[in-house]
Amino acid sequence: MHFQLTDDQRALQTGLRDLLKDGAPEWGDLVDVGLFTLRVPEVDGGVGLGLPEAVLAFEEAGRALVPGPLVGTELAATLGLTGRAEAVRVPARGPLLVPHLPTLDHVLLLNDDGVTVLEPGTLDAEPARAVDPQTPLWHVTGPLPAPRQRLDPPTACRVAAEATVLTAALQAGLAARTVADAVRYAQQREQFGQPIGAFQAVQHLCADMLARAELARVAVYAAAVSGDAGEIGGAKLLADDAAVHGARDCLQVHGGMGFTWEASVHLLLKRAWAWEQACADRDLCLDRLAEGLADGPADSPVGGTAEHL
Q1: pLDDT tens digits, residue range 179-191?
Q2: How far apart are CA 238 and CA 217, in angstroms?
Q3: Using CA of residue 295, residue 301, residue 303, residue 307, what is the dihedral sign?
Q4: Which of 34, 45, 142, 270 is 20 to 30 A from 61 (CA-CA)?
Q5: 151, 161 Cβ separation under 8 angstroms
């Protein structure tokens, strides 16, 4: 068993990276290239790939800081639902916040009892203040309406796990972006007659960022293959840590420039905060990791082939 990318997987990764290199494209372009139908069977108009390939694609989306309801729309497509969807976990405490609500066709509500599909128009909600300007939030103020669809327990378990690992892939891509941006700026910005990257303090920051990002990437890849709930929880924890700490360190490397609207560095930290709370927060991931360590490896309804990744 090995985890090297196949030629097809590398082509998928390279193709998406080229598409996204100039920033996030229009939503229709993402639909046209099949980002949300990678795991839909070919007979149903999809690409017919697996979760590992979807993780590679979402890693590139995270690297490019693509906004929008990415995870929910991909999951909805695997359930046969068309249009935009957001996957939202009911919080143990605090308000229920739904990103991008006016643009959605479906809301996938994740909770301890399973997964339900709601009509966005049936939710009583009002705009809420959002940290990330590209992730607008709506606060659900009224009682939850009757669901349009309730997923059976095995499907609900799979969807919840896949939502977590796809969000972790976004964070892994974002973490890699923070490393690249910090290193590039450290090579260009000069102080005392030399690039700031020549100073050991800056080198250590960048090296630590790279170590966290690579560890997160490997953990996310492994979780996508194994489908183990504990590994998925651990991968999300590592990816969140790499993204949030990486964005903070990237800000420090950029100095005062990093806090300005002229630079995009602050958007990295804001998006990392948003994705950190998406689908599975720190407490839930810690619970999943602890359960996985206590129970040992188990069969899982998610995951792909372990032959390649």
Answers
A1: 999 999 999 998 8
A2: 9
A3: positive
A4: 45
A5: no
